Amino acid sequence: AGDFDAHAYRADFPVLGETMHGKPLVFLDTAASAQKPQAVIDAVNGAYGSGYANIHRGIYKLSQDATDAYEAARDAVRELLNAAEREEIVFVRGATEGINLVAQSWGRTFLAPGDQIVLTEIEHHSNIVPWQLLRDQIGVEIKVAPVDDSGQVDLDAFTALLGPKTKLVAMPHVSNSIGTVLPVETMIALAHDAGAKVLIDGCQAVPHQPVDVRALDADFYVFSAHKLYGPTGIGALYAKRALLEAMPPYHGGGDMIATVTFEKTTWNDLPYKFEAGTPHIAGGIGFKAAIDYVQAIGLDRIEAHVDALRRYGEQRLAGINSIRQIGTAEARAGILSFVMEGTHPHDVGTILDRAGVAVRCGHHCAQPTMDRFGVPGTVRASFGLYNTEQDVDALVDGLAKVAEIFG
Ligand code: PMP
């Protein structure tokens, strides 16, 4: 699209030069986890190779430098999300831990039996199960906002679920299984009108578009670094300061304390109150490198490029009779989810793999979404900043082969 030179960016990603079964790798599984640019690999290597020491309590320069590098990642996340303060950024292992943290700390403290949590029909399991655990612990109720046949949330039905008992709405910004971009700004305003807090699962949105938690007025926002071209094992929870201050710690251990005696412990300041134990130091440093990398390209440009690819892919898939696309909402990210008549998604994935094309097949950790559309799973092709129209063409060629085999 336009001046976006995906071919040039590809050179930053060493893995894209690999072959699979003797064919050039066509990587179409970025929604599961993005590939890593050399800058991130170098940052992680450097964190272990020349700058490594435990952080936060070191009196010596090596430790202080590592601390500075790690804490610079917090500033980078703050800026990425346009949060007001660095204290509002809590490092977690990933989105999953961020959601569990909110459920166990905020949920167990501030929710009571009979209170309601509203989810949507297109959640990732990680935004369902933590709330079910909480339900079984304290007796909250879970309500589910339905989506229409395009995979978009039905706003009337959503609004009808909101009431005085609604204490939390937790929803994806972008669906990982079918790509719907939810009208989160509107939904947050509706939830706030009902007096509820809102948690946004931003895993698929942060790599896809600029996100501004203050403009959205999100109360909680979570995402994982590995989907943003960064390392696994680290992610961020954003929460408004007043919420974090009122919430008790989630894990206990070193670093999260101010004072400890056997009788009583007092908590460290934000955000360290929520960061027990030695953190993923190299991961944080790689996280910052990933943020710097995408910021230098521009998330708005990445969004435009990926949208153009998705539209191109959508058109090309529409030319194959046996394909049914799942999730056709107008607002969609770089995800194509589909089934092929007479085939199982895993057969399609296996044949594509032989052609070097890596896609994900199955329920994508979103079984209720699959149930909604009456399919056991889908084939999902998802795009990152390094994908090109040639990748889409390779996918379509592979699918033509599948159609031939399954006739
Ligand atoms: N939510 C969404 C929308 C996701 O795409 C994912 C990752 N597939 C998760 C949550 C969970 O993220 P993680 O496994 O990195 O914690």
TrEMBL record:
Root EC class: transferase
Catalytic activities: (sulfur carrier)-H + L-cysteine = (sulfur carrier)-SH + L-alanine
Positions in coiled-coil regions: none
Family, per entry: Belongs to the class-V pyridoxal-phosphate-dependent aminotransferase family. Csd subfamily.
Function as written in the Swiss-Prot or TrEMBL entry: Catalyzes the removal of elemental sulfur atoms from cysteine to produce alanine. Seems to participate in the biosynthesis of the nitrogenase metalloclusters by providing the inorganic sulfur required for the Fe-S core formation.
EC numbers, comma separated: 2.8.1.7
Protein known as: Cysteine desulfurase
Record's keyword annotation contains Nucleotidyltransferase: no
Source species: Rhodothalassium salexigens DSM 2132
